[in-house]
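#struct-pred
JK: can someone run the complex with 4-O-methyl-beta-D-glucopyranuronic acid? inputs below
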Amino acid sequence: MENYAKLWLGYTEKKNNRESKCLKKIVLSGAAESDTIVKNTVLELKSGIKAMLGFEPEIIVSADNILSSMDLSSGKYILDAEEYSVQIEDDGLFIESKSASGILYGAFDVLRTIACEKSIEKSYSSVKTVRPSNPLRMLNHWDNMDGSIERGYSGRSFFYKNDEIIIDERTKDYARLIASVGINAVVINNVNVKSAASYMITDRYFEKLAQLGEIFAGYGIGLYLSLNYASTIEIGGLDSADPLDERVIAWWKEKMAEVFKKIPTLKGFLVKADSEGRPGPFTYGRTQADGANMLADIVKEYGGIIIWRCFVYNCRQDWRDRKTDRARAGYDNFMPMDGDYHDNVILQIKNGPMDFQIREPISPLLGGLKKTNQMLEVQIAQEYTGQQIDVCYLIPEFKEILGFKTYCSETDDTVADIINGKTFNSRFSGIAAVTNTGNDFNWTGNYLAGANLFGFGRLAFDTSLTSEEIAEEFIRMTVSGDDNVVDVIMNILLPSRDIYEKYTCPLGIGWMVTPATHYGCSVDGYEYDRWGTYHRADHLGLGVDRSDNGTGYALLYNEPNASMYNSPESCPDDLVLFFHHLPYTYVLHSGKTVIQHIYDSHFEGYDEAERSAKEWDSLKGKIDDEIFENVSERFKRQLINAREWRDQVNTYFYRKSGIPDEKGRQIW
Ligand code: GCW
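RT: done, structure tokens with the ligand placed:
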């Protein structure tokens, strides 16, 4: 037996499409037969169809259609290039694209259709054309070279062990898995670049990195590294990392020439600077733009890009200080330089202004910045959302984020429009997820967390897909094609984010988690701490005043969002405590008081989690035992967690407020 699951590329035997004539001959048109991606595509189609349908198709590759003059450095052209179409013509199936990657995506479309047991004839009788929604569709690994993973809940790293890079069958299967859902970029090391990882840009690792880059390139995936901003000091022997210091610039020039020569497939770097103890340009009185531009100018001649994170805030705050607002930090640090970032810099912005809580407003940088390349960062590693113990299907949340209207322009003003490059005609843009994988047998700890890995890729590739469509594909391809099983798991996945929200932090307030580990309830865990993460509860009420009477954060949005958030009357219930400090007796739009909402949602959240666990139990014997047991065991832990959250939050606020539950349920 393999030591890892095949997930959605299991290619088990299928009943439908066995007689399909057009699958006997498949034409790949638009790229050369000698191209590695094309070779991999041919192998994938042959083995996949053979395993699912019992015959091997004849595959013809024709290089027609290549646009040799294509400028791949421009975002728009990348989208053009990666677009594919599939259709039945005469007696064969034609997969066409202007690039080898597009052909690969077309092939995976066909394999998905077969794996989901949809009719090939119906699916492709008229031409199906798909153009990816985003130029960059990226995964960020927070893997450390000692094999640990920061915020990893699925075992150890499959990239590193004891400061060495691992390359084996799993590396290639990982590339296949993520390419199959449309990922085209991957950062393979933690943004906190320390210890051995600082030496990734040295001789010690070039050879292995070059090999890794080749494997990824064979599946249309660009390799990126996280960079230690202070490399000049840590490995360069200089005493400064000042981006305007000539010695620093000279060191980087020489270094980058070497790095791009030794790792020819390298596409660029991700940088976390001036954040949570990491060094950065602020140390030298320089701006974030100074730091990013210095590196970008140097990597430009190699076609490289610098992805610079906006997660810059004061993590040494005094809890007594009510003026400093962590939520403002990203905006305050990056907005003033809008227009100054050079054209191969992309700012990578977390979806919310804080840090991947179960409910946050959209970062006001998205819709604020108008002259800067932008990328959205979401987190499928469930750091604050159940750590792959609790089931939490995040695609509905990502759909909300992408659909958010920022009012930054007359048309095309949603987050999806901004990051796909449409709104500001950006050259480089896209979406990244902090990934949830590790070397566990099933890759993601909980099998159901695989839906977030699968779903993130699918959504990044085609933002128009619904959460339901994505969940259904995932289940059919990974667990079972039985309609009843599909229904049961859909009913578990789709409401899971709401359920998790209900039994954890109410009304957008966030942060009532156990400090450091971030799993489990601790209402006051972060209340008197230095991280800028407070709920400000007293005997009368709770919430953070971010209106114009408070920190003014609400006014960072474009109108009408600013006014909407600024007043509790117009602020949506689910964020009202993020923006306002309200009495427990305040009546929400739902008609409930704040305190009654807290009680009701927590009782409901637990009950619904329990119902999901029971639904899962009904699958015993109907699905693979290994999957069944894995998720069952996680559900047991989820219920313990949900019960603690419910009872601690309810009890805490009952004791603070002295207001009993209208329904007289048990509070401790
Ligand atoms: O949420 C915080 C995490 C850190 C992480 C940081 C970041 C990689 O708790 O573990 O560091 O975010 O995004 O940089």
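RT: quick notes.
Residues 66-74 have pLDDT under 50 and may be disordered.
Residues 142, 150-151, 191-192, 272, 276, 311, 355 surround 4-O-methyl-beta-D-glucopyranuronic acid (CB under 6 Å).
JK: thanks, will look after standup
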